[in-house]
Amino acid sequence: MSYLIVLPNIQVENANAISGLTYGFPAITHFLGFTHALSRQVQQSHGLRFTGCGVVCHKHQVQAYQASERGDHYFALTRIPLTREAKTAPFNEEGRMHMTVTLFAECEGSIAHGDGGARELEQHLHTLCVAQRLAGGTVTAMKPVRVMALPQNGDELQNITRREMYRSLPGFALVDRSELLAQHFTERQTQDPQAERIDAWLDFSTITFRAEQQEDDSVQWQYQPKPAKGYLVPLMVGFTPISPLYAPGDVAKTRDPSTPFRFVEAAYGVGEWRSPHRVTDIHQLIWRYPAGTEHYICSHAKPLQEADLTEQDHSDF
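The structure assignment produced for this chain is given below.
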């Protein structure tokens, strides 16, 4: 049987704000890792397994400051103690942020003892969540956990989706729109066979202005809209292999010498921040691990379809 685990309004301090080439919000793998750690613990205690995670962000505050009139921003860094020689110790720059998020975890298994078992599971999950780190940050507070049965379709699923999405307001849900990236890359290749995937991704990632000459020979800078409409953002969605799979122990100093090992690099896609009341099916919000592939790229099991968009969703940001 499927259940929906709602971890509401988790307040996190000093979470990791840098994800590969992007910054401003943790990668989706951070949240899937958080629910996976919970899954390993409740699988031993309750026989349950978490299969996916949805994210709604209510508040975020990147720890940065503006250091010049040009608008350049720099991360506010932690002061490292001086060395024995009274010199500043070398350290890597870190990007931190505070955030408040609600997570929706999809759960498979059976909860014993009816409502009493669900209440006991809620208390157990609350204890586990505040003791773990989320995206490298410290969980300082959260609202009571909610556990409910999750039907696969029908009016009951729509009612649950509508109720939980409205309870998540105000906030924005992070959904996968990598299909827009694939479509745009195909269009660029039609116009330019030499176009690279990175060029298509940068069209979604950068703010572009183009100089246009006016009739009086003056020049005005015009904003160039992104390839698609919506609150679209660059997103790190997982990892892709750059080496063959090595047998256990072949590579020195790995974390687990009993597990096969391979070198990987970050993989990027396109996400969209969408108001939760625009989500019509909770499964469109759930990110899942890949299965049966060597590419570790997270996505939705039920991708967002163009038919799910309304006129308000097509407003230009």
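Interim note for the steering committee: The two ends are 40 Å apart (CA to CA). The longest helix spans residues 28-46.
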